[in-house]
From TrEMBL, chains A, B:
NCBIfam families hit by this protein: molyb_syn
Pfam family, one: MoCF_biosynth
Gene3D superfamilies: MoaB/Mog-like domain (3.40.980.10)
Coiled-coil residue spans: none
Protein name in the entry: Competence/damage-inducible protein A
Amino acid sequence: MEVAIVTVGDELLAGRTTNTNASWLCERLHDRGVTVERVTTVPDRIPDIADAVTEYRDRYDAVLVTGGLGPTHDDVTMEAVAVALGRPMEPHDEALAWLEADGYSRADLTEGTTDLPAGARALHNDVGVAPGAAVEDVYVLPGVPAEMKGMFERVATAFSGPQTYEATVVADEPESALLDRLEAVRERFDVSVGSYPGSSVRLELSSIDATETERAAAWLRERVDGVENGDDDRA
Amino acid sequence: MEVAIVTVGDELLAGRTTNTNASWLCERLHDRGVTVERVTTVPDRIPDIADAVTEYRDRYDAVLVTGGLGPTHDDVTMEAVAVALGRPMEPHDEALAWLEADGYSRADLTEGTTDLPAGARALHNDVGVAPGAAVEDVYVLPGVPAEMKGMFERVATAFSGPQTYEATVVADEPESALLDRLEAVRERFDVSVGSYPGSSVRLELSSIDATETERAAAWLRERVDGVENGDDDRA
């Protein structure tokens, strides 16, 4: 399964906020065997959000959208998703009932709080007020991290793919010195290999076969100078 | 000036790495008056990188690309940019001369280390080996944060726009309770307003007129319950 993530917010594009929502979602999806093909940040503008959703629905199996839910003028994500799907916005009775059960009165709620694209499944917000939505292949989640995470867990089972098995080998050599062994390990084993230089070089092996991944990692560990070989250091 | 940032790397899409390069670049560009319209993360694949560069060159004034420079099989960014620009890759004499001056011998360097799209201006890497490139409206920077930051400073003056003046008001009220005053401040003053809820609500005002921004912020501060008004808290 291939998906795209659209993160909405001027504050991300101004560099005031680091996009930890995207890395959290990517990690959860990756752990479920899902390939994230794109993460794109767009401004709080309806045409920009709608264009990104439309483009990625076309290309991938699902689109997750986070941010821009709520009562203020810059919260336009739900309306943009409705535009992308060609559906009108309408009040969602179940979302209203949830909020009333949580102690909100209809009169207190900002107008439009429970409006969702027609036919959407409302997603309850355990932490905040604004509901999310699942509609066709689009999942709309809040931007506040605690709200986003809680809501994602409600839909997590919709995302799945083949389990992959990963191993990390940390090499204490310059990346350029490792080229022969990287080429050899890719020829000998049916694994994909990523190479991430920093103060040392983190080599990430993965395949859909646990044994193959482990054999490749063992082969590499014997052949590179490693300070922390076997340490699955993701810092 | 409107730009897009393309960050390249499977490790970002797998959630192993948080995209702090993007937030750093966004902040630096924003401080220079440049509007970042898109930040997109793509996998280490030539067609994906080339498509993103092509699409954003079409729409915006410049594209910054970071990540995927270096000697290993998954470092394909420079070639992808050459594809997007329809230019061949060729050895760059000045980049080679820099590396030789830094103590590398041509024989030690991995083949292709100093290959850049034909006609590119090479950007020296103060921290690592792989050179960057400026070619037409595309700027190609490394992914290792220290290398990326150093190289961006070499081209920073290419990015500019109107100075904007910002002020932050932190409100200790629910976002939904603030709607009347948010509407009023937007009507009274020529400012744009962003509203970012968390444990409190951060209201970000901005305009191209310092006095207007300050007047709007002062007006709001008198009218909202604020725990830390005036504190420019970007946490």
